[in-house]
Design a protein that fits this description.
CATH class of chain B: Alpha Beta
Number of helices of chain B: 12
Shape of chain A: globular
Structural class of chain A: alpha/beta
Radius of gyration of chain A: 27 Å
Low-confidence stretches of chain A: none
CATH topology of the largest domain in chain A: Pyruvate-ferredoxin Oxidoreductase, domain 3
Radius of gyration of chain B: 21 Å
CATH architecture of the largest domain in chain A: 3-Layer(aba) Sandwich
Mean pLDDT of chain B: 92
Structural class of chain B: alpha/beta
Distance between the termini of chain B: 66 Å
Order of helices and strands of chain B: HEHEHEHHEEEHEHEHEEEEHEHHH
Helix content of chain B: 25-40%
CATH superfamily of the largest domain in chain A: Pyruvate-ferredoxin oxidoreductase, PFOR, domain III
Helix content of chain A: 25-40%
Number of domains of chain B: 1
Oligomer: heterodimer
Strand order of the largest sheet of chain A: 11-10-12-13-15-14-21
Largest interface: A-B, 77 and 62 residues
Distance between the termini of chain A: 56 Å
CATH superfamily of chain B: Thiamin diphosphate (ThDP)-binding fold, Pyr/PP domains
CATH topology of chain B: Rossmann fold
Shape of chain B: globular
Chain lengths: 610, 351
Amino acid sequence: MPIQRVNDFVVRFGNVNGSGSASANEMFARAVLRMGVPVAPRNIFPSNIQGLPTWYEVRITEAGHLGARGGVDLMVAMNPQTWEKDLASIDPGGYLFYDSTKPLPASKFRDDITVIGVPLTAICNREYTDPRQRQLFKNIIYIGVLTALLDMDVKVVEQLIGEQYKGKEKLVPPNIHALHLGRDYALMNLECPIGLKLKRADAVGDRIFIEGNSAAALGAVYGGATVCAWYPITPSSSLADAFTRHCAKLRVDPVSKKAKYAIIQAEDELASIGMVIGAGWNGARAFTATSGPGISLMQEFIGLAYFAEIPAVIFDVQRAGPSTGMPTRTQQCDLISCAYASHGDTKHVLLFPEDPAEAFEFSAAAFDLADRLQTPIFVMLDLDIGMNHRLSKPLAWDDNRAYDRGKVMTAAELEAGKEFGRYLDVDGDGIPYRTYPGTHPTKGSFFTRGTSRDRYAKYTEEGAPYVDNMQRLLRKFETAKDLVPRPLQANSANPTKYGIIYYGSTSPAMDEAIHMIEANGQPLDRLRIRAFPFHSSVPSFLADHDFVFVVEQNRDAQMRSLIVNECNVDPVRLVPVLHFDGTPITARFIAKSIGEHLEKLKMTPMRVVS
Amino acid sequence: MTYLTKPKFHHPALPKNALGYTHRDYEGTISTLCAGCGHDSITAAVIQACFELSIEPHRVAKISGIGCSSKTPTYFLGNSHGFNSVHGRMPAVLTGANLANRDLIYLGVSGDGDSASIGLGQFAHSIRRGVNMVYIVENNGVYGLTKGQFSATADRGSKSKRGFINTDNSIDLAAMALQLGATFVARSFSGDKAQLVPIIKAAIEHRGAAFLDVISPCVAFNNHTGSTKSFDYVREHNEAVNRLDFISSRMPIEVKYEPGTVEVVEQHDGSKLALRKLATDYDISDRVSALGFLQQQTAKGQVVTGLLYVQSDSDDLHAHLSTVERPLNALGEKELCPGQAALEKINASLR
C-alpha cells in the first residue's frame, strides 16, 4: 500500500556534487515553507567540489519536528552512482522518482514502492543544446515535476525564481519555462498527485530560515566583535564568510566608508588564535572560527590565554574526528578537548547553542562573558546546526543592552590612586582588574606572560604565589557557573525517577522523541545543558533522579565524562545514549534506545524464595 | 629572587628629552641575561632610541616570543605594556594587538630560534601582511636557554661550542624579509651601537613592516673560534653599506655632508633618513639589487650591515584593510551594534 500522507513526509534528493542541484533543492524547501508548512532540510555532502555523491534531505513537517527523522518517503534519484543505496533507503510503500531516459531492467527496482519515471535527460536534450544549460535546467525541471506530484502551489515556486534572479531578470523566464516543462510533463503523463501531498497551512509563523553559522556570525557583529582571524576549515568556514558579508553591510562607516572591523585569513590556526589573543589583550573583541583539528593546533595558545587571562571567543563548529575524521559529517565530539584544552591544569567555559537563534544569542553573550571572565569562551556549534538552514525563532536584540567590558581599570581610576594588581582578587570572585595597553603614562602597565607571576604580575617561580594564582583561577571558574546560560528543565506531567540530559543540536530530535517515549507510558524529566561549567541545577537534577540518560553525538560519552568529573556523581547512574555515525541524531533513535533501557529497568526484581 | 628592581635615584643633571623624561624613564628591570650578552646592548640601543625620539613610553607595546631575546622586553620601557607570549608566535600576537589599536607603537622582539625555526611561518606572514611594527631579531645562531644547540641561522660549516660542525644551510632572515615585501630592512650588530640606534629610530618612524636582523653574539655558547656569530668574527667580516643619521620630522636637518656622499630619504611622516654611503653603488630603494648584493657578499663570508632597503611611500595592514582611523578597541556598542531595526530587516529577508 503506497504511503498516504499530507504535510508530513521526507523527500531525499540524490545528486552529483557540483551539478548545480543545491540551489534547486533549496528552492524546493523554501517553496514548502512559503506554503506555510515547516521544513527541516539537511545537506549531506562529501569532502569534494565536483563528482562525488551528495544528498539533500527535506523533512516536511507541519507538526514542526525539525530534527532528522530517518527513513525516506520520496527518493529523487538523480545520481546513478548511488542508485542501489538510494533505492534501499526508501521506506516500504514509498516513492521513487528517477530519470527514465535510459531504460532499466525490472530487477533494478523494488516491488514494494511506487516507481515514477520521467525522461528528464531526453526532455533537456530536446529543449537545450548547451551542455551546461542541459545540466542546470534539468534540476529545475525535476522541481517542476515535484510541484505536480505533490500538488504544490506552482505560483510559490515562480515567485521564488523571481526573487532568486533579482537583478538578473533575463534568467527568470527560461527558469519558469523549465519549471513548466517538468510540471506539464507530469500532469499529462503521470498520475498526479501521488499519496504524498502538500497542503497550504499556517504553521511557520514568524520564524526565519537561517544557517547556524550565519546566525553566530551575526551574533558576533551584534556582540561587538571587531577582529576576526581564521583559517579555512569545514564546517566553520561559512561562519567567517558570513561575518565578512554581514560586516560589509552593517559595519562600514557611512561617511568615511572605512571598516569598523578587521578580518584576517591567517596562515594557520596557530596564527589565527594568536591574533585573537593579541587583539583581546589589547582591548578589542576578537574571535576565531574553527573545527576540531583547529582546536588541536590551538592548544598551546589556549593555555596561555587561560593562564594570562585574556578574553577570546572560539567558535568550534564540530565535525566527526579524530584526525581528519569525517570532515563533512556532524558530531559533538570536542567537549573534552575544549573543556580541558592545553597542558597543565586548565578548565574552560563552553556554550552549547541548540539552534540558530541560540547561536546568535550565545555568540553575542560569549563576548560579554570573555570580557567579564577574562578567559577564552568556546561556542560549541556543530555541522548540523552550522551548515543547515533551520527554521528558527526570529533574532532579537534589546537596543538598551550595553556591552559588559568586564573589569577594566581606567586612566582616571589609576590617576586617582586606585590600587592596581593585575592578578589581585579585590572582589572575591576570582576576577582581577586589567588595563588596556597605553592607558596611563606611569601607572597600570604590566607584563603579560605565560610563566608564573605574583598578584602584581611580577615574574616568580616560587610555589606559594603559583598556588595562590591557580586557586584564584578556580574561584573564577566557580564565578562562571552563575554567569553562563543556565540549563533548562522540563518536567514530565507525571512524577518520575528517570531523567534525560542532552545539549546542542540534539534538541529538535529530543523534543520529538520525548512524545514518542511518553506515548509508551514512560515519563521522563529533561534537562538541557547550555553551558560548562555546570550550574548548581545540574547536580540537583542528578540528585533528584535515580537514573539519568545522557544523550549525545560522540562515541565516548564526553558530556557524561564531564558530569562525572565535575559533579562527583556515581557513573552507574548516568546511562549513555550515543549516536556517532556522522549523521544527525534522530527522534526514532533516541526513543528506541531509551525505550529499550527503560524496559530493562522495568523488569520485576528477582525475589528470594524461601 | 622574584625579580630585580632598579634604584630610582639618578644624577640630577641627567639630560631630559622633549617630554621631560630622562634616560632612566625608558629603562626596565635589571637584566637577568649573562654578563656581556649582546642582547643587553640591543636593550640599551632601544632605550636610547626611544629616549631620543621622545616617545611616550606607555604608547609602546612590547611583544615577544620565548627565548633569551624574548626576555629582554622586561629590561626596557618599564612603563609600557609587554607580552611575553609563546614560542615563535610573537608575530601573530603582535598582528592582533596592532589590529585592535593602530595608535600604539609595536615593538616585536624575537630571536633566531623563535623566528627562523619554530616561528618561520609567522615571521614570513606578518612581513607579507605589512603589519606596522618594528620586528627585531636578536640573532646569535644558537639556542641559549636550552644551552647551545644550533639554530636555523647558524652558518653551514660553523662550529658549536661542543665542537659539532653545522651541516644544515642557514636561513638569512633579512634576505627573506626583502623577498617577502618588508618595506624597511636592516641588519646591524649589537657591538655597533652607533649604527644600531639610528636604525631603530628610523624603523620606529617607518610605517609598515620594518625588519631588523641584529647579530648579537651569545657569550655563553657562541663566542668561540669557529663560530660565525662571535664578536671577533662579526667585527672582522662586518661590511656596512651605509651609515645612517636619522633625522626626526620634528627637527631641522643640521648635519653637513660632502656632496655626492649622502642620500636623503623621506618617510611618510616627514622624518628624514640621511645615509652616508659606504658602498658607492648600493641603492637602498632597489629591492632586487639589495637581495643580489646580500647573496653575493654572504657567499664571500661577509656580514652585510646597514639599512639594506627602505620604501619611502610604504603603507600597512590597516591601509590594506581600510579600517577606520579610530582604534577598534575604542569603539563601543553605539558604533558597532546595528540594533533591532536592522535585525528586523534581516529577519524579514530570511522568511
